[in-house]
Every structure is written in structure tokens, then in C-alpha cells.
Amino acid sequence: MRICRRARNRLSLRNPCSGVIQTLRLTPRNHTGQYVVDWRIDISADCRLEPLEDAFGNLTHAFSAAGPVSDLRLMVEGEVETQDTAGVVRGAVERFPPSLFLRETALTRPDAALTAYAAEFEHPDGGTLDCCTACWSAA
After folding, report:
1. How far is residue 42's CA from residue 45's CA, in Å, rounded to a whole number?
2. Domains in the chain, ordered, with CATH?
């Protein structure tokens, strides 16, 4: 399946600022089941987009523009080709083990309502992928 995406954003300020510094996380990566055919980011400011990778391996772009800035327009468009991989992602950049994202902290501890909701999707005979697929289908 080919997916085409276009997004526009505009920032208008009554009082112009002396400059702008932004990091954009808008660019998808290739992996098994996903190929980025074309991707473009346009900014109305006179600036240079610097491609970077963040600590998690996400593609980012940073830019800065000297002021005064009162109007900034951003346009992102692209085309991505995807294939059905039954919910399994392979070949993606993943710098940290899943346990980092599965750990519980004071800010991520589920309350009783969320725990009860999650229990509705338990599959005693199914594996993790079966459980995730059931949860995704119910959403």
C-alpha cells in the first residue's frame, strides 16, 4: 500500500520574536515492511535544515532562523510504501532494549481502571503478539 501524507503548520505571532530554534521529528525511517519513497520538509524561513539522529535513532531535522520572526510556515509531504507484516516490525533502528519501555515508573504506573481494562484482553493460550493484535483490533 502506498500512503501519501501532506501536513501544513503555521505559527503567527503578534509580537515578533528575535529568533527561532526548532527540532523536527517528522521523518519516517525505512524498515522491513516500510519504504520511504519520497519525503520533503519546507520551511518559510531563510534557514538550513540539518539532518540528525536523536538518542533513540529517530531521524530529526534542526533549524534556526534569525529574527524578527512573526510568521513561520512549515510543510511536510511524502510518500511511503508499506507491506503487511502481521504487526511484526523487523529491521527498524532500535537502540534500546524493550525492557526500557516496559518498565514501570511512578509516572507510568497504571491505575485500577486501566489494569481492569487490560485484563479484558488477556489470552491465556496466546502469546504476546496475539494479545497485542487483539488489543489493536479492539481500539
Report:
1. 9
2. 2-82 (2.60.40), 104-138 (no CATH)
